[in-house]
Amino acid sequence: MTELAPAAGWILPDPPRLVAAPPATRGLLFRTLAQASRLFGRQQAPDVITVLHLNPRLFWGWLYFASRLMPFGRLPARDREKLILRTAWNCRSRYEWGQHVEIALRVGVSDAEIVAVASGPEAMADRHERARLQACDELCQQGCISTATWQVLTETHHEKALIELMLLVGHYQMLAGFLNSAGLRLEPPLEASLQAFQQRLDGQTHA
Predict the structure, then answer these.
(1) φ, ψ for residue 13 (rounded to 5)?
(2) Which end of the chain is more exposed for a tag (fewer CB within 10 A), N or C?
């Protein structure tokens, strides 16, 4: 099985560089938060949460900001997840990619759409969807959305949505750098979900 991956591969330092503290040392508030993960379809808090909590002073402020983008953002969930997936792909973050393949599937993004996101803006038939992915690529690669892309975005996005789109990509680009550098690996249930996705792709290729 050949895994869908960027041309340069995923960034995976070996061994992992940061490891979460034992659950008993995390404090009551954090343990309550971990239990609340079940509201979002997860049996336990993802490792990105527990590792970031190694720095509690930054963790709680980050968590509030991140939650304004996902899951409580105003962009349509399907658009949001495609942007996050494209950011993860651009940043070669397998952890971010695997986490959001699972979330994307849950909000109705198809296997074929995920493959199209990996292929890039040119794979999008709809010009507005193409512009969103193009904006993501430009932010990740040049740090600025081009005038041509911006003009297409403004046809369907008001100022608040444009700000959210830019901050969403920027946040997940920052987070991908953290995840890559920390060397986080997907949790077993998410790894299984990613492998099932890959097996479906392999089945379609050989059908």
Answers:
(1) -60, 140
(2) C
**Pair 144, 138: CB distance under 8 Å:** yes
Read off the pTM. Answer: 0.93
Packed helices 159-182 and 77-91: angle between N→C axes, nearest 10 degrees = 40
Cβ proximity of 195 and 97 under 8 Å: no
Q: Residue 29: how many CB atoms within 10 A of its CB?
A: 10
Question: Residue 138 and residue 134: Cα distance in Å, rounded?
Answer: 6
For 47, other C-beta atoms within 10 Å of its C-beta total: 21
Specify the range with the lowest mean pLDDT, choosing from 38-47, 66-75, 93-102, 115-124.
38-47
Q: CB count, 10 Å around CB of 166?
A: 16
